Amino acid sequence: MDKSIPIFELVISLKYEVIYWFPINLTKFHFGFRCPRRTHHPVAWTILPAAIIKSDAAKSQIIALFDTAPRRTYRRSDLLKILTEHRDEWGGGAAYWGQAEFINFLLENTDLEKINLYSERYGDEARYIWRYASTFDIALSLRRHSYLTHGTAISLHRLTRETPTTVYLNHEQSAKPRGGTLSQEAIVRAFGSPQRRSNYVLSYNGVDIMIINGKNTGRLGVIELTGADGETLELTSIERTLIDSSVRPGYAGGISSVVEAFRGARETVSTAGLLTMLQRLDYNGGAYFTLPASELNLRK
Q: From CA 191, how far away is CA 30, in angstroms rounded?
């Protein structure tokens, strides 16, 4: 945090322009150029220090904004959008902030923290978290319009006693033309081979986050759930989760975990509800379950 004291203040007064004041810190040697609002006349250009006024009033407004926001994880572009929307109401030196100055101010003067997610095969990604963010919240920030799925959704719906070691995130593909109808032989052949798995994995704090590019469904069956830390999470409904996990059991801990999830859902899910969801998902004519509803004790 910058604790140095400004040496003097420069006051600029322009005709038809608001008076702008800011401290020039002689201990700083990094200067940038900013043009006051509502004019681009060359006379109006001024030299501003890299660290502009740290107004207590603006700081308290910024902290209140982040404290009441429904999210806790941000991209760099998200922070720029916040600055663009609120810089005028914050006043003071905030009117001159660029993206870099704003982010530096947040990192040095508030509880915003920068984190990095690492990938062995793809590029690393950086995010900014406010005070604290769960791994689920961080995962959802990786792809816009994505949602938690498969084994992660099973765990969040409390359909298993196991603790997953991977967070599964579904980012749907763009819509594609329909293919042909699947045959029973093709289904048997597909399930008889090892399941293909996504290679897009990012790691954070000892947890792997796997990004799955699932078929386009228009986010069918995606719901909101309040996480353990009060955050809003988007994930598949129980019906959608059970079907997705049956089609791709490798993302749900294997067949035994899927069976456990079905049994855990028997009091809340009906066979009719599952069939309705299956028909709406339209898996090229339907999928075939090897376990009958009677064995899983599902409601009729």
A: 61
